[in-house]
Design a protein that fits this description.
33% of the residues lie in helices and 27% in strands. It is an alpha+beta fold. It folds into four domains: 2-90, Rossmann fold (3-Layer(aba) Sandwich), CATH 3.40.50.20; 125-180, no CATH class; 197-318, 2-Layer Sandwich (D-amino Acid Aminotransferase, Chain A, domain 1); 327-439, Alpha-Beta Complex (Glycinamide Ribonucleotide Synthetase, Chain A, domain 4). The two termini are 42 Å apart. The chain binds adenosine monophosphate (AMP) and glycine (GLY).
Length: 445
């Protein structure tokens, strides 16, 4: 089959890489690609949100399946338009994508479905929000309702901070229309874990557990980013917990969406807060996370194209999905200054060593320990034959091994081989899991 992937980051490179290994895929297009993707897929110079042009492209090139990476085209209704044109596409409709694009919609569904989540109230005017907040004590969380590039959530230690956050969103309009509505939520403590489920509208199959590292610096310091690293599986999260999330979160959410006439097809990304026996949903996303997807694609042992097609066709129960029990880790190499301002066009070196010119001592060590390393391009470009930086998150260095600690060592060894001026990355990806392992697995989860 011919597959079109929408997007141009590390997530999409990992999807294209996996699709390329699929026996049933003859041709891959990617709109709009990057230098890593372009080695194995045909670049299509159409923006991911130019839905009309993408429909035309898919029709005239007889594309059998389209896979959407980012949330923007989903919010813009790409799935509705493709489906209307008789084209097969993996992802939710715009109505179903509201699980991510509107936090108050997601909370309402959770409430309807009896899914455990923090108590909340939603406000369309600043005065009511202020009145609500003033009557409360202790920490609370203020969230802009719409998509705000991951910056619309403010943890407030007291009512005064919450009043500031409300003013920021609703009066100063820092997030534009995304802050027209604000929700105020009860503060939850615990450990954050993400959970993926492949959904076909009726049924779902679990697709791994992950821990993201959102803050830019080690020990979760500094401003939040799109994600600086992730690993999978999360050892603190056992099979019982997975069964609970499927039963208490995924199944009732799918049922509630169905009851509204908006069945959810695609990847449901559940952000959870776990505190002892208590699980609560923090958020839903309606697409693969980035860099979680890179870690997942390393572990996927089955045919990705067939798995996604099964979900798009409403036949997830028949999909043969296999995840390797091995551990994978993804480390993001970012531009100096990211998530603030950063320069582009800086030369990247060292990647060729990893891709074919590995020193023989490292090659032997990695082979003996059953280590696989793969670097995915995120924000890169080619200028006059030279690979250069072209975004905040530049490359995702990913490794898989039988033991998490081995994978982490290899990923850092590989990360050190790649250089560009200003390059920075977190040095503590997966540390929490490694500490958990050395403490004998004791822990609340
Ligand atoms: P969200 O986009 O809703 O997942 O929020 C972004 C981040 O804010 C989460 O990953 C959590 O770290 C934090 N957060 C969100 N909601 C809460 C909450 N109710 N209590 C504590 N932390 C939260
Ligand atoms: N890494 C988190 C996300 O993709 O939303």
């Amino acid at each position: 089959m011919k597959v079109l992937v929408i997007g141009k980051g590390g997530r999409e490179h990992s999807l294209v890489w996996r699709l390329h290994q699929s026996q049933t895929v003859q041709k891959i297009f990617c709109a709009s690609g990057n230098p890593g993707i372009d080695q194995i897929a045909q670049a299509v110079p159409i923006a991911p949100t130019d839905v009309a042009a993408l429909v035309e492209f898919a029709k005239s090139n007889a594309v059998d399946l389209t896979v959407v990476g980012p949330e923007d085209p989903l919010a813009a209704g790409i799935v509705d338009r493709f489906t209307h044109a008789g084209l097969k596409i993996f992802g939710p409709t715009a109505a179903a994508a509201q699980l991510e694009t509107s936090k108050s919609f997601a909370k309402t569904i959770m409430r309807e479905a009896g899914v455990p989540t923090a108590g909340f109230a939603a406000f369309d005017d600043a005065e009511s929000a202020r009145r609500y907040v003033k009557a409360r004590t202790g920490p609370m969380v203020v969230k802009a309702d719409g998509l705000a590039l991951g910056k619309g959530v403010v943890i407030c230690h007291d009512a005064k901070a919450a009043l500031d956050a409300i003013d920021d969103a609703m009066e100063r309009r820092r997030f534009g229309a995304a802050g027209n509505r604000v929700i105020v939520e009860e503060f939850l403590s615990g450990e954050e874990v993400s959970f993926f489920a492949l959904c076909d509208g009726e049924n779902a199959i679990p697709l791994g557990t992950f821990q993201d590292h959102k803050a830019v610096f080690d020990d979760d310091r500094g401003p939040n980013t799109g994600g600086m690293g992730a690993y999978s599986p999360v050892p603190q999260f056992g099979p019982e917990l997975e069964a609970r999330v499927m039963r208490e979160v995924v199944a009732p959410t799918l049922a509630a969406m169905n009851a509204r006439g908006n069945p959810f097809r695609g990847l449901l990304f559940v952000g959870l807060m776990i505190d002892g026996e208590r699980i609560n949903v923090l958020e839903f996303n309606v697409r693969f996370g980035d860099p979680e997807c890179e870690a997942l694609m390393m572990r996927l042992d089955s045919d990705l194209a067939q798995n996604l097609l099964a979900a798009a066709d409403g036949k997830v129960a028949n999909a043969a999905i296999r995840l390797s029990p091995r551990s994978s880790v993804a480390i993001v190499l970012a531009s100096g200054g990211y998530p603030g301002d950063y320069k582009k066009g800086i030369a990247i070196s060292g990647l060729d060593r990893l891709e074919g010119n590995l020193p023989s001592d490292i090659k032997i060590k990695w082979a003996m320990r059953r280590i696989r390393v793969k670097v995915f391009h995120a924000g890169t470009a080619m200028r006059d034959g030279q690979l250069v930086t072209d975004g905040g998150r530049v490359l995702t260095v990913t490794a898989m091994a039988p033991e998490l600690a081995t994978a982490v060592d290899a990923a850092y060894q590989a990360a050190e081989m790649i250089e560009f001026e200003g390059r920075h990355f977190r040095r503590d990806i997966a540390r929490r899991a490694l500490v958990h392992a050395t403490s004998g697995g004791a822990g609340s989860v």
